[in-house]
């Protein structure tokens, strides 16, 4: 089984990671430019836009869903601290 490739759009950088890896771990290992704040899904500092491959991102949990709804985020935005990568995707960091 091949490893997912995460394309960081703003850096134009591709990073390979194990299936199911947390986005936080991927960012830390790759030195991609994504800032994390609270790391529990309540501050929005790590908000990202999934440009491609939303089907390869872990499901939205209740706390993250509530936060994103409270700031009226579009459906292709997620909190980086809350996701796991299950396949190829393209991601842009947008922050809060």
From TrEMBL:
Name of the featured protein: 2Fe-2S iron-sulfur cluster binding domain-containing protein
Pfam families, per database record: Fer2
Top-level taxon in the UniProt lineage: Bacteria
Positions of the 2Fe-2S ferredoxin-type domain: 4-96
UniProt GO MF annotations: 2 iron, 2 sulfur cluster binding
PROSITE patterns in UniProt: 2FE2S_FER_1, 2FE2S_FER_2
SUPFAM superfamilies in the record: 2Fe-2S ferredoxin-like
Source organism (scientific name): Silvanigrella paludirubra
């Amino acid at each position: 089984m091949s490893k997912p490739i995460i394309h960081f759009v703003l850096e134009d950088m591709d990073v390979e990671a194990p299936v199911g890896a947390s986005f936080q771990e991927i960012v830390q290992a790759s030195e991609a430019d994504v800032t994390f704040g609270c790391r529990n899904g309540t501050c929005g500092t790590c908000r990202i836009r999934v440009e491609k491959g939303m089907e390869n991102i872990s499901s939205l949990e209740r706390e993250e869903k509530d936060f994103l709804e409270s700031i009226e985020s579009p459906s292709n935005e997620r909190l980086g601290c809350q996701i796991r990568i299950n396949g190829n995707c393209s991601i842009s960091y947008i922050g809060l």
